[in-house]
Amino acid sequence: MKARVHVMLKDGVLDPQGEAVRHALGTLGFSGVEAVRQGKVIELDLTATDKAAAEAEVKAMCEKLLANTVIEKYTVEIA
Amino acid sequence: MKAAVITFPGSNCDRDLAMAFEKAGAEVLRVWHKDADLPKGIDIVGIPGGFSFGDYLRCGAIAAQSPIMRGVADFVHAGGYALGICNGFQVLTETGLLPGALMRNAGLKFVCKPVDLRVETADSAFTSGWSKGDTVRVPIAHHDGNYTIDAEGLARLQGEDRIAFTYVENPNGATADIAGVLSDNRRVLGMMPHPERAVEDALGGTDGSALFRALMSAMALA
Asked: Can you tell me where the transmembrane regions are (chain B) (predicted)?
């Protein structure tokens, strides 16, 4: 079973890297970009076979390590 | 005063921190990150600057899960003192021993230069050698020093007089110019600037010495 975790800065937390990317896109002539937010994708190969249990476990991983919930939010996809 | 200084893979200010403690008259024990416990009888633990675990995932995130950090948490919860500098500050926020988080500098660049700090409180074992409002010159060297905390957390820090240092000129976008914060029992200090790099005239100044001397006198009284 595979899990994919998306980690993004919470809404309202200023993302200096995303802002720099937006600026660079503007410099390249892509004028229609209003905002850029940059995050992380983390893929995990799991031995679990039960989807709900896997999801609960990956969420626990996010809370403990994969995301810093002071500034970041996360979503978990199990496939 | 007996101090322990932790070394993680990628720490690079551990010797400087040990030397700063020793220069103030402390006995220093060096501790490896895989050790499960801190040495018995220490007064303070120092968590040094550097790039623990290559800053993988987030600065300090992997180090925060090291065996020794469980020992540090137990020590702090029992009323022990801890000083986290630069990467050490990041480790302390990642373990939840200090509030907030350190994000990428607003200017996106690694900033390495001496800066002026304002002492915001003299009410701690770390800052009692100064008066509130004093200005001290200490180097910074970081890429992720942009201290971030929500409005509620900031109000709490301000209300409880837990902001130890602010930048006179904000170099990294930190919320409310914050350079260092104290825990609620005032025994844990995390700061991005490097006082341990400001204890020798030959290396640019000695403004950082007052922090280690203040700790020394606080521990002598304890």
From this structure: none
pTM of the model: 0.94
Where are any strands of DSSP class E within A1-79? 2-9, 40-45, 72-78
pLDDT in tens, B72-131: 999 999 999 999 999 999 999 999 999 999 999 999 999 999 999 999 999 999 999 999
Residues of A in contact with B148 (CB under 8 A): 13, 70-71
The reply to whether residue B148 touches residue A71, judged by beta carbons under 8 angstroms, is yes
Candidates 3.60.15.10, 3.40.50.880, 3.40.190.10, 3.30.1330.10; correct CATH number of B2-221?
3.40.50.880
How far apart are alpha carbons A65 and A69 in whole angstroms?
9
Pick the catalytic residue: B33, B94, B120, B194?
Answer: B194
Beta bridge partners of A45: A2
Q: Which residues of B111-142 are buried (b: 16+ CB within 10 A; e: fewer)?
A: eeeebebbbbbbebbbbbbbeeeeebbbbbbb
Q: In angstroms, rounded to a whole number, what is the distance separating the alpha carbons of residues B24 and B47?
A: 17
